[in-house]
């Protein structure tokens, strides 16, 4: 019975903490789910809050662009976007389909190479174990 009373304060604290976290999560989610999108947050790119048109497709950044435009350092590719309502021209980082295809085939090649290497290791190990088993059987037959 003493154990139950000793545990009660910690259970009560844990329950209060859980209720507070749940309340805060519900309050935060309620603020996010509101339909009031008339005021964009400062620093938010325009393509997050309004319609846009891609004016220049995803292209590889030049060495100068990589040094001057921060968004080029993320993926090495960039596209230019015109926002319809604010009439802003902005850039954003993108992933090139050619780059993704090249990375995929590099991965496939690496996996084929690794599987070939491990297949050789398995064959070598199996031959070694077979040789040991035959040697053991030969010694047992000789001892008879």
TrEMBL record:
Protein localization: Cytoplasm, Cytoskeleton, Microtubule organizing center, Centrosome; Cytoplasm, Cytoskeleton, Spindle; Membrane; Mitochondrion
Stated name of the protein: Protein JTB
The root-end lineage is: Eukaryota, Metazoa, Chordata, Craniata, Vertebrata
Could you tell me the keywords of this UniProt record? Cell cycle, Cell division, Cytoplasm, Cytoskeleton, Membrane, Mitochondrion, Mitosis, Signal, Transmembrane, Transmembrane helix
Q: What does this protein do?
A: Required for normal cytokinesis during mitosis. Plays a role in the regulation of cell proliferation. May be a component of the chromosomal passenger complex (CPC), a complex that acts as a key regulator of mitosis. The CPC complex has essential functions at the centromere in ensuring correct chromosome alignment and segregation and is required for chromatin-induced microtubule stabilization and spindle assembly. Increases AURKB activity. Inhibits apoptosis induced by TGFB1. Overexpression induces swelling of mitochondria and reduces mitochondrial membrane potential.
Q: How does it sit in the membrane?
A: Single-pass type I membrane protein
Q: Do you know which InterPro entries this protein is assigned to? A: JTB
Where does the UniProt entry say this protein principally localizes?
cytoplasm
| Residue ranges crossing the lipid bilayer per the database entry | 103-124
